[in-house]
Design a protein that fits this description.
The chain is an all-alpha fold and 182 residues long. The chain has 9 helices and no strands. 30% of the residues are buried.
Length: 182
């Protein structure tokens, strides 16, 4: 491989950022913080992004097309490059960036696993396991009345729409999740 191999861009890097950006746009929907009651804090915003990215990564990882796994990795890489950049912009010192990004990485993986298990265990029709996972992660166990049900319904709609998406569209970076703002 040599030195030139290290300098070569990853084939899905640009698309990964495009898909990640679409997930972030959906995670910033005002209805999440207003109607649904996701906390409008750094942690709440991270949790909203983590939910949307987890749904997308799940969809990509489970596609039989070999591009799916590469796209999932590119979205994950884009997310944590963005988290690193955001921490730096917030003035977090260089010495603690790695530790904070690792903590965020672990939090993301825990949430993604919990959402995947909740949606897979009961199927898309059953909402209670997903509502419990969302209440635990988004609101730390104290959600507003009805909020987990609203967010679980949104997550299920997004997951269904992602499942219906052709891998070719996703590999081209075509994704708009803003239709799920309610």
């Amino acid at each position: 491989m040599g030195l030139l191999g290290l300098l070569r861009r990853k084939p899905f890097e640009r698309v990964g950022f495009e898909l990640y950006t679409a997930s972030v746009a959906a995670a910033r929907a005002p209805s999440l913080f207003g109607t649904i009651g996701v906390p409008d804090t750094l942690e709440g915003r991270f949790d909203a992004i983590a939910l949307h990215v987890a749904l997308l990564v799940h969809r990509l990882r489970h596609d039989p097309d070999p591009r799916g796994r590469d796209l999932a990795q590119a979205v994950f890489d884009a997310m944590f490059a963005d988290m690193d950049l955001n921490l730096r912009e917030m003035g977090v010192g260089d010495m603690s960036i790695g530790r904070r990004v690792k903590t965020m990485w672990e939090a993301f993986h825990g949430r993604a696993r919990a959402y995947e298990e909740a949606m897979g265990a009961a199927g898309m029709a059953e909402s209670a396991p997903l509502e419990a996972a969302l209440a635990r992660n988004i609101w730390r166990g104290e959600p507003p009345e009805g909020a987990p049900a609203l967010l679980a319904a949104r997550a299920r709609r997004i997951a269904a729409a992602l499942s219906a998406r052709e891998i070719g569209d996703l590999a081209a970076g075509r994704l708009d999740l803003l239709e799920f703002q309610t």
